[in-house]
Amino acid sequence: MKRFVEGEDRKQVTLLPECLDDFVAEDNPVRIIDAFVEELELESMGFDGVTPSTTGRPSYHPAVLLKIYIYGYLNRIQSSRRLERECQRNVELMWLTGRLVPDFKTIADFRRDNGAGIRNVCRRFVVLCRDLKLFSQALVAIDGSKFKASNTRDRNFTTGKIDKRQQQIEESIQRYLSALETADRTQPPELEAKTTRLQEKIKQLRDQMHRLEQIREELKTQPDGQLSLTDPDARSMATSGRGSGMVGYNVQVAVDARHHLIVAHEVTNSGHDRAQLSPMAQAARDAMGRNRLKVIADRGYYSGPQIKACADAGIAAILPKNLTSGATAHGRFDRADFIYIARDDEYLCPAGQRAIYRFTREEHGMQLHRYWSSACPRCDIKSQCTPSDYRRITRWEHESVLEAAQKRLDRMPNAMMVRRRTVEHVFGTFKHWMGYTHFLTRRLTNVSTEMSLHVLAYNLKRVIAILGFSRTMRAMRLVGA
C-alpha cells in the first residue's frame, strides 16, 4: 500500500485538456487586476498605442502590459526581465495576458513611455477608494523617506568631494614618483617591469585628475552644486544614521488615518522635508475631495510659510516645533516662557517686565518684529535669561498661525503616535517589496512612475484586505463609471 500522495505521469495524454481558466481560482486577486484594467479608459488617461497603427507589425495593447506591471508589483516582481520569464511560466500571468509573452524590452519601454498614464491610473484608484468611502472624515499623516537611486556615492560629486579626491590622487602620485625614483637608483636593469607598472599607475591617476577637472567645470552649471553621473536627477542626501547618507530620492506620502490608504504621493530630489508640507497637504485634500483637512507631520516639516500656506487653504497642520533653542540647551529661559500680549503688542518676561516692540526687518521674505525690555541690564535673573545685554525676541508677522498650530498639538497629545502608526509602516512595506535595493529606473520622471506602481499595488492590496474579494470585484464596476 502506497503511503505517499502520488502525482500524475508527466507524459500522460488527456483527451479533454483543462481550460486555462480552471487553473485560476475564482477568488484569485489576478481576476481583480483584470477587471480593474478592463474598466479603464486608457486613451483618455494618456496611454500610447490604444488605437493600433495601420502599418507595421501589430503591437501589444497597453492593457496587456499594464496588467503585467500591476501583477508584478503586487507580487514583488519589478524587473522587466523577470516579468518576461514569469509570462512564460506563471499560470496566473498566462491567464491574465492570454498566453502572450512580450519581451523584456517591450515591457521596460512601456513603463518608460507611459509614465503619465500610469500615474493617472494610480490617481484613478484613489478616486475609487474615495467613492467607496474608505477614507476618514479628514485626517492624514504626511511623511518622507529616502530611497536609493541607481547611482553610487562614488559617482556623485560636489566641490568638496572633488577637492578631497584630488588631494588623495596628488598624494598617491607623489608616493609613486618617490617609488619610481628609488627604483631608478637601485633596481637592476632586468627588473624594468616594476618601473613600467609605476609609470602606468601615474598615468592613470593623472587621467583621473583631468576627468575631475572636467567634472568641476560641469558642476558650475548645477544650481544645487551636485552632479550625479549615472542618474543626473539623483542627489546626495543625509539619512538618520550618524555620518551616513545616500544618493537617492525623497519619497513623500500622505496616508489616510482610517485604513492607512495612500491618498497622495510625490518623488522629489530635495534632501529635506521643509518645503513639502503644503504641497502634500493640498494634494491630499484634493484627492479626498474635502474642503477641510487635518494633517499630522513630524518636526522635519516645520516651516512658518508652509504652515501659513496650509492655513490659507483650509488645512489645519499639527506638528511639533524644531528643537533648535540654544537657550534651552544651556538651561536658560526658552521662547515659550515669554507670554505675548496681543492687545499691547508686547511680551511679558519671566521677571514680570514688558518687552516692547522696537523695529521690523525682513529676512528671507518674512517680516520679523523685534522686542526687548530696557530693564534687562538691571534684572536679578538675567543670568537665567541671556548672556547678552538684552534678551531680544523675534516675532513673525504671522506668528498667530504658528501659535494656533501649537495649540492643536497640545489638544492632541497622541498626535505623533497616530502619525507613526499611520504612515511609517508604509515605507517599510515599500522597501521590503523592493528588496532594500535601489530604484530600477533613472531620472525623476521615470522614478516617479516606478513609485506610482508601488503605491497602486499597495492600495490595491489594502482594499482587497479591507473589503474582501467579492466586494472588491463588485467595486471594479465603479472604475469606468
Automatic annotation (TrEMBL):
Molecular function per GO: DNA binding; transposase activity
Domain of life of the organism encoding this protein: Bacteria
Signal peptide: none
Annotated Transposase IS4-like domain residues: 239-460
Organism: Paraburkholderia aspalathi
Region feature (Disordered): 220-243
GO biological process, one term: DNA transposition
Transposase InsH N-terminal domain segment(s): 19-112
Protein name: Transposase, IS4 family
Coiled coil region boundaries: none
